[in-house]
Amino acid sequence: MSSSFGTLFRVSSYGESHCKAVGVVIDGCPPGLDLVEKDIQSQLDRRRPGQSKLTTDRQEADQVTILSGTENGRTLGTPIALQVANKDHRPGDYGNMRDIPRPSHADYTYQMKYGIRASSGGGRSSARETIGTVASGAVAAKVLKEKYDIDIVAWVSSVGEIEATGINTEIISSAEVDQSIVRCPDSNATAKMTTLVTELKDIGDSIGGTVSCVIRNIPPGLGEPTYEKLEAKLAQAMLAIPATKGFEVGSGFAGTRLRGSQHNDPFVKKGDRLGTVTNNSGGIQGGISNGEPVLLRIGFKPPATISLAQNTVDFSGADAVLEAKGRHDPCVVPRAVPIVESMAALVILDMVFLQEARKALQFTI
Asked: Is 361 exposed, middle or buried (0-12, 13-18, 19+ CB in 10 A)?
């Protein structure tokens, strides 16, 4: 199913940007986990619109309600349904776009695929759909932290040509990331990014950027070769996020400029296991985690919906000029940080469950 993700920890999201509600159903969450709305709400608050002057002006509290799967604050092992109401939705803002496909948006492709589309706000292609990802990812992250001590932190590493530097991936925390209005832990870069995004919002334009992510304390052995490699599943998850256009793990494309003698990660003894001196592999070798931190980098394009007039054509092919109204982010990466963390949590927890199932069935060697 196109709106479902995962094998043993499986999520299915629903809802459009301007319908009555959006949400997700989680299947496979272990019973006995302490879980109430506030455990999920903190991540949704980081994703919600209208949280700063640099985001869309749409005002949504994004209050989550647990509809099923818990009793007295504990999971039952049955499906967990989570729902968030859409309150500040204005489908009328999109009236002038019903007949004109927005450049670089999904209006045209959805119309060609289904013969119909949600013309208000992009429907399922809207970032509003990621509420289900963040809500279910918060549950997955809670299981990972409490049961396996696996920690996931993402941050904005670039906006346009402005790059963050000096990030220590071994100690960076979400609290440190959230001290920045753009969720970039480099204060110098934050100031420049803030200025750029503010200027673009004022003139109705947009800009892209990158989000980096580290997954710490991940055990060796996660990943399902050949077609379910750990980096392949992470890439699938990250590229399912709206506006993504690129994915790197470890050294990424920069590694293509190195020689093997420079890129290889020599092994050393680290406590009761082997580790590596460097981490150009990004914690993954042969599609399987090696116990080192998993390092990811995701590229986001400039938001497609802008207020500047654009010469284009309508669905009949006639010339048209589009000036989008509505309320849109000038740069998505600050709000994408919790989405990236959530997608990573969904992948890693599913891979942990698959590996534990394999180990439980393994003969003694």
From this structure: exposed
Domains of the chain: 4-361 (3.60.150.10)
DSSP line for 309-340: -EEEE-TTS-EEEE---S---S--HHHHHHHH
Give the Cα separation of 104 and 229 in Å (integer): 31
**Helix (H/G/I), strand (E/B), else coil: 206:** coil
- How far apart are alpha carbons 199 and 348 in whole angstroms? 38
Both tokens assigned to 176: 């440190």
Reduced to 3 states (helix: H, G, I; strand: E, B; else coil), residue 119 is: coil
Per-residue model confidence as pLDDT tens digits over 10-34: 999 999 888 899 999 999 999 999 9
Task: Give the tokens for residue 285.
Answer: 């070798």
Task: Please measure the distance between the N-terminal and C-terminal CA atoms of the chain and give it in whole angstroms.
Answer: 38
Q: Which residues pair with 246 in a beta bridge?
A: 299
The amino acid at residue 155 is W
**Strand partners of residue 212:** 155, 297
Residue with tokens 């299981």: 143
Name the band, by pLDDT with cuts 50, 70 and 90, for residue 49.
confident
Backbone angles phi, psi at 10, to 5 degrees: -120, 135
Summarize pLDDT for 166-191 with one digit per residue, the tens: 999 999 999 999 999 999 999 999 99
pLDDT of residue 118: 83
Q: Give the residues across from 299 on adjacent strands.
A: 210, 246
Alpha-carbon distance of 281 to 217, in angstroms, equals 16
Q: Which residues contact 91 (CB under 8 A, 6 or more apart)?
A: 18, 120, 121
- Nearest CA to 35 out of 151, 141, 130 is that of 141
Q: What would the two tokens of residue 27 be?
A: 């299947």
Task: Give the mean model confidence (pLDDT) for residues 305-311.
Answer: 92
CA 351, distance to chain mean position in Å, is 17
pTM of the entire predicted model: 0.95
Q: Is the pLDDT assigned to residue 236 strictly greater than 70? A: yes
